[in-house]
Amino acid sequence: MPNRRYHIHIICADNDQLLLLDSLAIFFQPFAFLTYDVSSQLPKAPLYGRQCIDDCDYALMIIGDSYGSVQRTGVSQMHLSYLSAKAKIKPLLVLIKNHQQDATISRQLQEFIKSVIRQDNQISYYDTEDDIEKLLEATYEHILTNDEVTGGWVKDKEKVFTVTRQEVVERFSDLLSTNKPIKKETFVNDGLVTDGVSPVIVLTDFFDIQYSAQAYEGGNLTDINRPMSLTWQEILITLGKISETFSSYGLQNAINRLITSKAEEDVKRDMPNVHAVSRCQISQDDLNNLQRQLVSANWIGLTTYGTRVSQELWKLTSYAKNLLDDSNVKL
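RE: above sequence
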C-alpha cells in the first residue's frame, strides 16, 4: 500500500452515477482523502467546490449521463468546478462515459464534453460502471508514476492515523509558545486534539496583521506592504466557510481571500487613484501567530498529525461552531 495519501477532489454532476461514486470511495479509501462536488441546490455549493479545489492535490472529473443542475450562472456545478481546477492549474484526470449513438444526452453535456476533449486533458473512457475499477487502477498508477505534485500526507509506517501524547505535547508546545508558561496537558474534544488552555476571544476585538499586495494605478504596478486590522468576528466567519478539514495552506488561502475583500478600500485611503488590488498575502509571521491563537482559544483542532506542518489537517471545533450559532453570525 502506498505511503502517501493525496487529497483528491471529485468533480461530478449531482444525482448522477451514485453507484460509481461509491466505487470511487471504496477504491481510494486506503490511500486518498476524497471530497465531492455537492448538490447545486445548496447555496454554498460553488464556494465549497472552490475551497476543495484550492486545497486538493488532484482533481478527478467523472462525466456520465448528466450535465448537472444548471445554476443562475447558466452552467452546472460540475462545469464550474472544472473551470476552477483549470484556473488553479490543478493536475486533472478525466473519465468520460462512452455513449451509444442512440443515447439521449443534453446539448449542454455534448458541448461540455467537446470542450473538455479540445483542451488537451488527460482523458480515459469507460462503458459502464462495472469496468470503472480497472480505470481507477490505471488512473492511480498514473498519479504514482508521474508524481506531479509534491503535496499529500505521508503516513508513518508505524503509526497510521495515530497521534501519541508526546507528539501532541511537542506540537502544541511549539504552536502555543509565548513569553509566559502554559499548561501542556492535552485532551480530545469531538475527536479533535486541543489544548487545555483556552483564553476567551472577544469577537469585536481586532487582530492586527501585515499584508503584501500589488496595486494598479494608471497602468503602473506597485508592490505594497500595509497593516490591516481584522475583527475576530470576521475571522470566525471566514473559518466557518472553510471546507470541513483544512491544511495550514487552506487557512492561509481563506485569510488571503478575507484580506482581498477589504484591500482595495484600505489601499485607496492613501492611494486614491488605485483602480485594482491583487495578490493579497498575509505575512507568514502573522499567519503563524493567528494559528497559534486559534488553537489556544479552542477554535480549531488537529484531526490528523504529521511529522511536518504541511501534513497536518485541522477542523473547526464544536466550541467555534456553537460560537457562530450563538452570535447569530450569518455565513
